[in-house]
Specification:
With about 200 residues, the protein is of the alpha/beta class. It folds into two domains: about 120 residues, Rossmann fold, CATH 3.40.50; about 60 residues. It has eight helices and five strands, in the order βαααααβαβαβαβ. It has a five-stranded parallel β-sheet with strand order 3-2-1-4-5, with helices on both faces. Helix 8 links the parallel strand 4 and strand 5. Helix 1 packs across helix 4 and helix 3 crosses helix 4. The longest helix is centred in the middle third of the chain and has 16 residues. The protein is globular and about 50 Å long.
Length: about 200
C-alpha cells in the first residue's frame, strides 16, 4: 500500500527548467566555458553546487564554488521574479489536492537550494501540501545518489516499499531506483535527452 508520494520539483511541479537553462548558459558565457547541450543535459537532476564542483574541476575555474552558485542563483532569480507567465505545470494542483484528500503524505525532495524551493513555495502557496521538504544542498552528493530519497522516506516514517517517487530526470529516476523506491517518470518536453526507461512507469 502506498502511503507517501515523493515529488521532485523542477520539471515535475513547476517548469523552471527553461529558466535554469537560461541562467546557467548566461553564466557559462560570462565564465567563457564551452559547456555543450549534452554536457548540460548530464547535470539535470543534480544540485547546483554539484554542477559547479564538476565544472570548476573540469574547466579549472578560479572562482570558488560558493561564488559561482550565488551568481547563477542571482541570474535565475532575476527571471523567476519577473516572469508573470510562470505557473505550476498543468494538473499539478488538482493532483496535489486529490492525493492529500486521499490521505497520502506528500514530501518534496528536490536538488534545488532551500532558497529556490522557498521562492517557489511562497509564490504558489505550496507549503500546506507537503509534510516535509528536502533540499539537495544538504547532501554531499546529489542525484543519482539515493541519499535524498532515502532521507525523504525516513522523514515520512514510511518504508521505501510504501513510497512512490515522481521524477523527470535520468539522475532522479536512477536515484529512486537505487533507493529501492517505485518511480513514476514524467517525460517533460523540457527534459530532452533524459532516459525515462529508468522509471518503473512513465
Amino acid at each position: 500500500m502506498i502511503r507517501t508520494v515523493i515529488f521532485d520539483m523542477d520539471g515535475v511541479i513547476i517548469d523552471t527548467e527553461p529558466i535554469h537553462h537560461a541562467a546557467f548558459f548566461a553564466h557559462f558565457a560570462e565564465l567563457d566555458i564551452p559547456v555543450s547541450a549534452a554536457e548540460y543535459a548530464s547535470f539535470l537532476g543534480s544540485s547546483t553546487r554539484n554542477v559547479y564542483q564538476a565544472l570548476k574541476a573540469r574547466y579549472q575555474l578560479a572562482d570558488e564554488v560558493e561564488d559561482l552558485l550565488l551568481r547563477k542563483r542571482a541570474l535565475f532569480n532575476a527571471v523567476f521574479d519577473t516572469d508573470s507567465s510562470l505557473d505550476l505545470l498543468p494538473g499539478v494542483r488538482p493532483l496535489l489536492d486529490d492525493l492529500r484528500q486521499a490521505g497520502l503524505q506528500l514530501v518534496l525532495a528536490s536538488s534545488a537550494s532551500k532558497a529556490t524551493i522557498k521562492r517557489v513555495f511562497d509564490r504558489f502557496g505550496l507549503a500546506p501540501y507537503f509534510a516535509h521538504v528536502v533540499s539537495g544542498e544538504d547532501f554531499e552528493r546529489s542525484k543519482p545518489d539515493p541519499a535524498i530519497f532515502r532521507h525523504a522516506a525516513e522523514l515520512a516514517a514510511t518504508p521505501v516499499t510504501e513510497c512512490v517517487v515522481i521524477e523527470d530526470s535520468s539522475n532522479g529516476m536512477a536515484a529512486a531506483r537505487a533507493a529501492g523506491i517505485y518511480c513514476i517518470g514524467y517525460a517533460s518536453p523540457h527534459s530532452e535527452g533524459q532516459d525515462v526507461s529508468l522509471a518503473d512507469r512513465v
